[in-house]
């Protein structure tokens, strides 16, 4: 094997390991008070020449270490550091056989080969994370995964004092948790930034890495809008300030001492910081935290549509000028969208005047709307732009659906690589077979899928599909749009049209 090949293999291995580590810590924690830590008229603004000592002195009293206790090790897996699962990654990883650190770790009975000896782990597992206080009466924010399933929660202040705390509410979809510290005395607290941070802005991260207590690191915002696959509302800030295990739930401050994000995940091949950390922006958290505080749970707006991205192929087949917005693949029964007249095939481009860039953006915008309030939804239907008023509903639980089995009579669409059969009770046309290497396989179609519409018209028999596709052959249109149901979900597929 060549040197370059070996290096490439090592890089790919590290990349894969890094992705696994990044998913071990997920989503975020955020909030929205209205007053700064100290009741001073002039904010403290740090500069690179002055250092950050004055800023840190002001905000540090509001940053807490969150400690949780679980009844057994299995439950302790929710903890951020000392659970059975996380402890396996807490030691120094991948030590070479000739490493002098091996002799160092052999001095400690809890370590073996540079890793904690699991036989020495206590039955009552402990977990540790970070958080920050947002009100004078002791409400504080941390990650859901730090306190989830905990039997006891306590916090340690920067001055060393400890207090019991209780969980007020959690939101797994954003990995947020709101806790209340048990104390009669008022606390110093911090507020969220009221403006969006920019790439390149300096941030100060404060937290409890590896259980060491209040630790400060600095860096910049490296990117915005990161989707790391941790939940449906991912919109992370990427920062290069050092973030490690135990930092989860801790704040990232701007130079005025406002919280711009909640440190919650890392990308790392080893479990330690390599300068790629993720924080949920403050703007995402405020409604969630308010809802947790007022109701103990989160209420989100609901439109009632299945949506997908507008790809280049779909935009061309629908005659759209831009590849933005979210195309409606299905409208849920008894939903606000159905009541307002939104239809399958509509492309939603704006909500209350705000541009919708993609399905994830639409989901976030709708989720932030209050149920019962009216929203203006702009959409494109049949090449024409229109605006519809929709009364936003309350997001329900996940619905279940099923697709019919394929019927025995067959028809073929060899050009596309499909073999079709009538759907059950005339419900669309079932895909019986997909030819390997065909256009259909390329577009992700598979046996068991059901074609519901072709070129905007319902189909109930394979002949309907053949006729709809055949009618476009020889024309200017290069693709035909098919509405396909796969399991419980529907999506649009732009299939190529063979020349006549």
Task: Give keywords.
disordered N terminus, 4 domains, alpha+beta, Pdz3 Domain, Thrombin, subunit H
Question: How is this structure best described in words?
Answer:
It is a single chain. The chain has 500 residues and is of the alpha+beta class. The protein folds into four domains: 1-83 and 125-296, Thrombin, subunit H, CATH 2.40.10; 89-121, no CATH class; 301-394, Pdz3 Domain; 411-496, Pdz3 Domain, CATH 2.30.42. Helix content is 18%, strand content 32%. The chain has helices spanning 3-24, 53-59, 84-87, 101-105, 144-147, 282-295, 312-318, 336-340, 359-367, 439-442, 462-470, and strands spanning 63-69, 111-112, 115-116, 126-133, 139-143, 152-156, 162-171, 176-181, 202-207, 215-226, 236-239, 251-253, 259-266, 277-281, 301-302, 305-309, 326-331, 347-351, 354-355, 374-381, 384-391, 393-394, 411-413, 418-422, 429-434, 450-454, 457-458, 479-486, 489-496. The strands form six sheets. Strands 23, 24, 25, 26, 27, 28 and 29 form a seven-stranded antiparallel sheet that branches. A hairpin with a 4-residue loop joins strand 23 and strand 24 (418-422). It is elongated. Residues 1-42, 74-94, 108-123 and 398-411 have low confidence and may be disordered.
């Amino acid at each position: 094997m060549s040197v370059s090949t070996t290096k490439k293999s090592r890089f790919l291995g590290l990349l894969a390991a890094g992705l696994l580590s990044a998913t071990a810590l997920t989503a975020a924690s955020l909030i929205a008070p209205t007053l700064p830590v100290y009741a001073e008229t002039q904010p403290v603004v740090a500069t690179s020449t002055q250092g950050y000592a004055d800023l840190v002195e002001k905000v540090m009293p509001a940053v807490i270490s969150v400690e949780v206790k679980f009844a057994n090790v299995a439950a302790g897996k929710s903890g951020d550091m000392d659970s059975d699962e996380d402890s396996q990654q807490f030691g120094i990883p991948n030590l070479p056989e000739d490493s002098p650190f091996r002799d160092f770790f052999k001095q400690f009975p809890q370590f073996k080969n540079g890793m904690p000896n699991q036989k020495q782990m206590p039955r009552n597992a402990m977990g540790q994370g970070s958080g920050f206080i947002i009100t004078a009466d002791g409400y504080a924010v941390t990650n859901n995964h730090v306190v989830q399933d905990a039997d006891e929660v306590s916090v340690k202040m920067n001055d060393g004092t400890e207090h019991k705390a209780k969980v007020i509410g959690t939101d797994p979809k954003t990995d947020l948790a709101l806790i209340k510290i048990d104390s009669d005395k008022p606390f110093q607290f911090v507020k969220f930034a009221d403006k969006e941070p920019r790439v390149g802005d300096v941030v100060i991260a404060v937290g409890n890495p590896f259980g060491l207590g209040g630790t400060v690191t600095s860096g910049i915002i490296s990117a915005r809008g990161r989707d790391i696959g941790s939940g449906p509302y991912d919109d992370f800030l990427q920062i290069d300030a050092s973030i490690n295990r135990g930092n989860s739930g801790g704040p990232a401050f701007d130079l005025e001492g406002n919280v711009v994000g909640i440190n919650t995940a890392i990308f790392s091949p080893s479990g330690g910081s390599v300068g790629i950390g993720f924080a949920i922006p403050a703007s995402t958290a405020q409604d969630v935290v308010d809802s947790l505080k007022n109701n103990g749970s989160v209420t989100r707006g609901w439109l009632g549509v299945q949506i997908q991205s507008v790809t280049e192929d779909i935009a061309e087949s629908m005659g759209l000028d831009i590849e933005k917005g979210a195309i409606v693949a299905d409208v849920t029964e008894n939903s606000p969208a159905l009541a307002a007249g939104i239809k399958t095939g509509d492309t939603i481009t704006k909500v209350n005047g705000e541009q919708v860039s993609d399905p994830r953006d639409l989901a976030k915008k709708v989720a932030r709307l209050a149920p019962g309030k009216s929203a203006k939804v702009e959409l494109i239907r049949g090449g024409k732009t229109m605006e519809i008023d929709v009364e936003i509903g309350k997001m329900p639980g996940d619905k279940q659906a099923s697709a019919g089995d394929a019927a025995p009579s067959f028809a073929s669409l060899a050009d596309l690589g499909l073999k079709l059969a009538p759907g059950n009770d005339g419900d669309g046309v079932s895909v019986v077979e997909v030819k390997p290497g065909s256009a259909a396989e390329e577009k992700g179609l598979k046996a068991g899928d059901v074609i519901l519409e072709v070129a905007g018209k319902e189909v109930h028999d394979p002949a309907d599909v053949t006729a709809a596709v055949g009618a476009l052959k020889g024309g200017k249109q290069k693709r035909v749009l098919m509405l396909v149901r796969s399991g419980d979900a529907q999506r649009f597929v732009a299939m190529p049209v063979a020349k006549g």
